Model the fold of this input.
Amino acid sequence: MQGKTSMYETNVFVPLLQKVTDLLRHEIRRHAVNDNAMRIVAEHGRAITFLLADGVMPGKEGRGYVLRRLLRRAEYFGETLSHENHS
Done:
């Protein structure tokens, strides 16, 4: 894990979390709930990218259902962050 205490501090996730913070104009580690939501958005975005690259399309069964759930959950947490950031 590159000598880090969390996988979210590795070179895989740092750019993803930075992009989330840039899009939301939000600071990492400002609030524990927001930090968790940003990590979920980054992790789900990464998983969605791999599923789409494998040719998976959103559907009602199997991997398509998993992709659909990931999209919905990432959108939910993204919206949550967006609303909290603009309150």
Notes: The chain has a mean pLDDT of 82. DSSP finds three helices and no strands in the chain. The CA atoms of residues 1 and 7 lie 6 Å apart.
